[in-house]
Automatic annotation (TrEMBL):
GO molecular function: protein-disulfide reductase activity
Ranges where the Thioredoxin domain occurs: 1-109
Keyword Electron transport carried by entry: yes
Protein name: Thioredoxin
Organism lineage: Bacteria, Pseudomonadati, Pseudomonadota, Gammaproteobacteria, Lysobacterales
Family statement drawn from the similarity comment of this UniProt entry: Belongs to the thioredoxin family.
Gene name linked to the record: trxA
The organism of origin for this protein: Pseudoxanthomonas mexicana
Length: 113
């Protein structure tokens, strides 16, 4: 796993994600989830590609149930893109790098506007 991807839990979610000065892509995942493991290398790549413009964080739903419940995580992987403490985009299920890049670019593009 990339050292640019951070693990966030119930205790530090607000500080790490909602109060972040840059947008944060949050991956809600679990150890037993096959599709979660499939997209993990893509998230590592995105963390490298968007370094300085976007943070990538992972929340283990089994260990951090309060955060998962708060954001209505019903199926995983579920990706939420936060900017200024607000959800800008949602992606449920494993998708390719191209689709995630489009989602991120759209959200970051609105940052410049």
């Amino acid at each position: 796993m990339s050292d640019k991807v951070t693990h966030v839990g119930d205790a530090d979610f607000d500080a790490a994600v909602l109060q972040s000065g840059e947008p944060v892509l949050v991956d809600f995942w679990a150890e037993w989830c096959g599709p979660c493991k499939m997209i993990s290398p893509v998230l590592d790549e995105l963390a490298e590609t968007y370094g300085g413009k976007l943070k990538v964080a992972k929340v283990n739903v089994d260990e951090n149930r309060a955060t998962a419940i708060k954001y209505h995580v019903r199926s995983i992987p579920m990706l939420l893109l936060f900017k200024d403490g607000q959800i800008q985009a949602t992606q449920i299920g494993a998708v390719g790098k191209g689709q995630l890049t489009q989602m991120i670019d759209k959200a970051l593009g609105s940052q410049a506007a």
